[in-house]
TrEMBL record, chain A:
It comes from Flagellimonas zhangzhouensis. This is Glycine dehydrogenase.
TrEMBL record, chain B:
The keyword DNA-binding applies. Pfam families: Sigma70_r2, Sigma70_r4_2. Residues 12-75 form the RNA polymerase sigma-70 region domain. Residues 123-175 form the RNA polymerase sigma factor 70 region 4 type domain. It comes from the Bacteria. This is RNA polymerase sigma-70 factor, ECF subfamily. GO terms for molecular function: DNA binding; sigma factor activity. CDD domains: Sigma70_r4 (cd06171). Belongs to the sigma-70 factor family. ECF subfamily. The lineage of its organism: Bacteria, Pseudomonadati, Bacteroidota, Flavobacteriia, Flavobacteriales. GO terms for biological process: DNA-templated transcription initiation. Keywords: DNA-binding, Sigma factor, Transcription, Transcription regulation.
Length: 76, 184
């Protein structure tokens, strides 16, 4: 049942992408009850996710970038 | 201080996403934004001899992009003819009898502030991401912004999931530190 801080932060990272299982989440929650360091990390990690959400970032796809590079190279 | 130099061969990798987000924030259309970024790179190449090295490469490119955005609005505006603001008493029958004054934007609305703040936030995140090692930034973007599955990212980059999570962890920790002062 008990997990290390390293495992806890790993689960926390995964849960930011909804890729942590319910059992992992349970173990994480338990860990957070007594570990202040991980609790702090977990809070900031969740905030980072919501900041990224709020910022509405977009990126160009790999293909779009390749095309841009090619066009640019022609003019170099 | 050392003079800045231009490295056009790295422009796409280093600045394309940043410029793209900047442009999307101003023209609200991904296709147009993409074209503007491309035009910016071309214009940058053509006028690279005018680059004095006073500003960082990115700042210089952003200043070109700003002109491109203005040009874009000039162009669409001239097509449509002169800008025209029409205001009817009320187009909405439900609101019949309401005063015209009630149709103007609510001066106490915080919407505008939010939009601006989010844009600033986006640029701050972009800045912080540029400071990450290239592969970390790439993995972080693929997972967080493009919402790709772990499996797809691993396949595309030829890494295994534990590699991926280590990079994600490092990237997230670095970003927390970088954004810390202003945003948390």
């Amino acid at each position: 049942m008990k997990i290390t801080c390293e495992e806890a932060s790993g689960i926390c990272d995964k849960s930011q992408y909804k890729e942590a299982g319910w059992w992992e989440i349970f173990k994480l929650r338990l860990h957070l009850l007594y570990c202040k360091t991980c609790k702090k990390y977990s809070k900031k990690n969740t905030e980072l996710s919501s900041l990224c959400d709020r910022a509405g970032l977009t990126v160009l796809t790999k293909e779009e970038k390749e095309k841009m590079k090619k066009d640019l190279e022609k003019n170099l | 201080m050392a003079k800045h130099q231009l490295h056009p061969e790295n422009w796409v990798d280093q600045h394309a996403d940043y410029l793209f987000n900047y442009a999307v924030g101003r023209v609200s259309d991904a296709e147009i934004a993409k074209d503007l970024v491309q035009e910016t790179f071309m214009a940058g190449l053509n006028s690279s001899k005018n680059f004095k090295g006073d500003a960082a490469e990115r700042t210089w490119l952003v200043s070109i992009l700003k002109r491109k955005v203005i040009d874009h609005y000039r162009k669409i505006n001239s097509k449509k003819g002169k800008a025209e603001v029409r205001m009817s008493y009320s187009s909405d029958t439900d609101a019949e009898g309401d005063w015209l004054e009630q149709q103007v934007a609510d001066p106490f609305s915080k919407d505008g502030d939010n939009v601006m703040e989010n844009e600033e936030l986006g640029m701050a995140i972009q800045d912080c991401m540029s400071k990450l090692p290239e592969k970390q930034a790439l993995v972080f973007k693929m997972k967080t912004i493009q919402d790709m599955s772990t499996e797809d990212v691993c396949n595309e980059l030829g890494i295994n999931p534990s590699n991926l999570w280590v990079m994600i962890h490092r990237a997230r920790t670095a970003l927390m530190g970088c954004l810390n002062e202003n945003w948390f």
